Amino acid sequence: MKFRLTAFALHLLASTTVLSLTLGTLYFGWYYWPGWYLADASHVVVVMAGVDVVIGPALTLIIANANKPRRELRRDLSLIVAAQLIALVYGTTQLWAGRPLYYAFSENVLQMVQAYDIDSEELKIAREQHAELLPHWYSLPRWIWAPLPTDPSEREKIVSSAVTGGGDDVISMPQYYKPWEQGLTALRTQLKRVDEVGYFSANQKKVLKQRMSARGLATDQSNAIPLTGRGRPLLAVIDPTSLKIKAIFKAT
User: Fold this and answer.
1) What is the average pLDDT across 155-183?
2) Could you read off the pLDDT of 87-109 as tens digits, one per residue?
3) Same domain, 73 and 151
């Protein structure tokens, strides 16, 4: 039993260390608040943790036997580790492909833009136009403004494709990205009182107002705008004067 417990403890320690380093790098590099929540990344992490921290060490506890031939034991452990590596690579690949690259203000909402939202064709166009805010593989999340183009035909084309779901929205087109500061005037016109903001139910708005009050933020001013992504929407509270983001709240 001592041999089993030792093997289990060592395997659990090694698995936990590798998984923690992997997730820690992704979290502090790209997924820090509000990225993790908006990307709804928890389901991928559950699979990774289930295989690498629970199932793998548990199987080692079962098969580890001091009387088992070492060659057979190494084979069994190798199969377990191989399965763990597959889960780790799968999860890491999914999280990397979905890493947040931008938080974009566009029209009347803030939206998270993930790496897989921008396809290769849009990247090619942005490179050809030497777009100022072109994403690179090493890019960290940035706050940007993604206005619709001024050309009426281009504008109509993008709006129509976004509404019908047959094409990309402007937030997926880096050639139209502009610095965050240039969109602040437009952002001010889209701020609303919490009760006027869409995306949230009446009960959720009640919770949001309670959390704003607890932080000393006014609930009767036009200072709020929704922040959306793959997960549940959040509420961003922005100072109407300085236009600095004061807080980002969950509605649940």
Assistant:
1) 83
2) 999 999 999 999 999 999 998 99
3) no
Can you say whether the dihedral through the CA atoms of 202, 205, 211, 215 is positive or negative?
Answer: negative
- Shared-domain flag, residues 63 and 147: no
Whole-number pLDDT of residue 151: 84
Under the banding of pLDDT at 50, 70 and 90, the label for residue 64 is: confident
Contacts of 26 (CB under 8 A, 6+ apart): 92, 95, 96, 99
Whether the Cβ atoms of residue 148 and residue 170 lie closer than 8 Å to each other: yes
CA 222/CA 237 separation, integer angstroms: 9
pLDDT (mean) for 176-196: 96
Which tokens sit at 139? 């890019």
Rounded CA-CA distance 13/53 in Å is: 9
Q: Does 63 share its domain with 131?
A: no
For 138, the token pair is: 């090493």
Instruction: Give pLDDT, residue 165.
Output: 61
Q: What predicted TM-score, i.e. pTM, was given to this entire model? A: 0.88
* Token reading at 224: 């709020």
Angstrom distance (rounded) from CA 35 to CA 248: 11
**Domain shared by 68 and 167, yes or no:** no
Which of 73, 97, 121 is where one domain is finished?
A: 97
Same domain for 16 and 126, yes or no, is: no
Range of the domain at 89: 2-97
Residue ending a domain, choose from 97, 117, 135? 97
Average pLDDT over all residues of the chain: 92
- Do residues 43 and 137 both lie within one domain? no
Tokens describing residue 53: 């921290």
Q: Is the pLDDT of residue 45 over 70?
A: yes
Instruction: Say if residue 190 is in the same domain as residue 238.
Output: yes
